[in-house]
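hey can u check if this looks right to u? its 375 residues, i copy pasted from the old doc so theres a chance i mangled smth
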Amino acid sequence: MYFQALRRFAQQIFCVAAVAGVLSAQTPRCGHERWSIKTGTDSQAAAINLTNPVATTLAAIAAPTPPNPIPADTRVAPAETTVWTLQATLTAFKIEDGPTGDSDYHLAIMDEHGATMIVEIPHPGCVAAGSPFLPGVTASRKTFDGRFQPTGQFQMVSVPIQVTGVGMYDFSHGQRGYAANGIELHPVLDIRFLDKAPVTNPPVTGGGTTPPPPVTTTQLLLDPSFEMGTTGSPWTASKSVLNGSATEPAHTGTWKAWLHGVSRTKKDTLSQTVTIPANAKSATLTFWLQIVTAETGTKPNDTLSITVRDDKGVEVPIDDEEGDPWSNVDAMPYTKHTFDMKRFIGRKVTITFTAQGNGSLPTSFLVDDVQLNVR
């Protein structure tokens, strides 16, 4: 009798735990801060035109001065009463599932100049059934789940996307990807991965020919303009190389890589490892370089060299037009440099910038907007 009662009690405990687990899985943790604006349950959401998104750029949408203070439950026109669509590079993502998380997919995106922005896909279970945003949120979440599996930790990627959503000003909490003015697309109503976009050719009519499909360019390096700063940067750099000071401005944005620049013997390095897809037809490395020096002679006392090493140990130097490393003799304003990387297609490569000085007068090598583009 005792063991039968104990068995029944254990079964009841198991059933309660199972039901609780199901309810927990079906009931996401939702947010509070500006939640009606984020999910479309505010009084102004129904008036937003969802069928005609306005094309913009990350730089343009992040340019206006943000409201101060940010209202709790009313929209700021036109930023928050418009559906925007833009193209950028997805650089990082995670699900906000921590103790204070709201179950959103947090996506950090970046444009070609290194400017950043956050776009978020709420959990459909956190969007009320009457919200006009629910169909788009549900579809966007499904599309993203079809490509990635978000976890509670940021995953770093470099994927070109087109994203459509409603603007929303957020408060700064030190979020990864936070825009210059705090604007987000929140919620995301549509997301497309451009590296896998299907190409539909128009029918041939009137004796014409079908035009070739458009060429898609993909930028492979993470944080190419260093705007992530030193927190979570995908670059491996010597101390103080990643620099956001205004003493020597960046080419774009705020941050750049500042190598050497002191009156003592010093070696600085900056590197990132990336795999160039085997199906790429071309690969090109570009970067902007400025050299500022206090040297006055013609002797190369301070130098900057760039090497590319593949996974087979083959190392190729990338030098200036005369076949030598850059030096204090080559003082220049920000200048774009381009190098063919086709020989490394299908290989994992490490791109390394190395600056060295002899301890005499300082020379600063300022590197910014480093891109590895493949087609």
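The chain has two domains: 31-195, 218-374.
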